[in-house]
Structures are given as structure tokens and as C-alpha cells.
Amino acid sequence: MPASPKISVCIPTYNYADYLPLAIQSVLEQSFTDFELIVQDDCSTDGTAEAVRPFLSDGRVSFGVNEFNLGLAGNWNLCMEKAKGEYIKFVFADDLLPSPDALGKMVCVLDADPSVSLVASARNIIDSESRLTRILCEFNGSFTARGTEIIRRCLFRQANLIGEPTAVMFRRTDALRGFNPNYGQLIDLEMWFHLLEKGKFAFIDEPLAAFRIHPRQKTAENIGSMIHFDETLSLVKDYLARPHLDAWPPVRYYLTVDAVYQFWKSRKKGLVDRKGALKRIGARFSVPEFFLVLPFYKLVKPFVKLHKKLNPMNFDHIPCQK
After folding, report:
1. Which end of the chain is more exposed for a tag (fewer CB within 10 A), N or C?
2. Fold of domain 7-219
3. What is the mean pLDDT for each group of 10 consecutive residues in the chain (322 residues)?
């Protein structure tokens, strides 16, 4: 029985035959070579099998096709069920690893500190032609911090400060629960919160992932259906209520109202009419209470924005092990 690989690199894919070879090649070019590469196809119809076939001569690469479409959570979880490595590294089929040292640098962080449950990096943002458009780095410098503090920061700023699945690595044993199928748009962020409850967060300020922005992404469809607002509210209600996050009750209430307000605000963007907005609010919050607290919320919000501006997300900069 061969020894288990250090890393299981997972590429879940659906109709990305045009981008998939770039993703696979970026993994196979890594200087750290102790990995298996699992490519799991969720019933693509675009010639994905033909795109993968040239890479199957590498014994580290395996390819599977689902019997039926499992959707995001189902296919991501199937990848992890197949994984044998100590660490899990997702690389989405339309993304890639821009540095041959990406795997090695993340492994060094996890090996050096067993209390780290999630490591992430800065990201290159690329377009449909793989041209670099900008570098995204949410933090100042490489550091480690308590996982619960990062959860609080994400919820308070209503943003995924950690990054997309291609930008992270984590321990397989910490992720046995799998991705939560109740989430669609924020399915990755909810999993990061789950992992960060188990340990520390480590950040590398070097771009070790390339995230592609293109018209075929599921994100655009989800924003149009306002799934993002629903799931932000779910995260606020679920995680900020947990005692170990030590969130002040007025802050929890403000963030709940802030998340609900996004449904009301969406009228101005033409995503929903007044009746539709009220229906969505009523399904999640008391409509009379919402309009009662709305003037106070609008009074407080400028001070919250000022607080965010004056309090940058700095942490103790503990250099990540190289």
C-alpha cells in the first residue's frame, strides 16, 4: 500500500474544458511534488474528458465523472471524500496556481504550526484570457491570528476577507463535516468559518492563487437572485450567536438589521420591487420592527463606516515559515 500523499489537490469542474488544462498544468508544475490531483467532473457536456486525457499519464492524476449532477457542495464534498492527503488544496477549474511554490509555501505554514487550521494567500485576479488585472490582498503582511477574530472581522465587514477556495489550504481531518449544502454563494466562507473555529488563521501576502473573473461564473447569477443577502444574514445569525465569538449583543443586532436592509436597498438597484422586498424582509425579520429601527440604523451607519476606515485590519505580523 503506497504512502498517502501530503496534499490532495482537488479540481471540481463543470463545463470548463477550455480553462481546465491551464489549471491542471499549474498544479503539475509545482516544485512541491508530494500530492495527488483529483479532477472530478460534474457531468460536463463540453469535452472535459478529452481535455483531461493528456494528463492521465501522470500517476498522480485521477479523473472521475459523476453519474448525475451533484451541484457545487455535492461535487466539492465528493472530492474531499476521495482525498487521501493530510492537507486539502482546491484549485478551481477556471483558476490556476501562478507560482510553482504555491503548494510548498502553504505546506510549510501548516507543518510549522499545528494550531493553524486554515492558511490563505493574496490572489492574482485574471481575466478570461489569463491576463493579470490586479492583485487582491485584504491584509497587511503575512501573519497568524486567532480564527475567531477573523470570523468576527468577516462578519463585521460583510466580506470574504479570506478568499476563494483556490486561495486556501487546510487539514483534511478538520474538514470531515464537508461543505454545507444549505449555502450556495457563500458556501466557501461558511466552511472557512467552520475551520477557523478549530484553530488559527495564517495569511501569506504573496499571490499564490489566481482567481479568474469571467462572464460564465455562477457568482453573477447568484447576485441577481440575491442569494448573497440571504446567506450573509444566515451567517450573521448563526455564527455571531456563538458564545466563543464573544460578540456584543448590540453589534449582533446592528449586523442583523444591516443584512436585512440589503433587501430594502436592492429596490434601488432594480433587483426587486417594493412588494418583493417587503416579502423577503418579512420572511426573515419583523417588518414593523424593521421600519421602527430603520431611522436609528441610518443614524448609526456613518459612524460604523468611519470606524472601519479608521481601524485597518492589522494583526501581529508573525512571519510565516518559508
Report:
1. N
2. Spore Coat Polysaccharide Biosynthesis Protein SpsA; Chain A (3.90.550)
3. 85 96 98 98 95 97 96 96 98 97 98 98 96 94 95 91 97 97 94 97 97 76 70 90 86 92 88 90 93 95 86 52 36
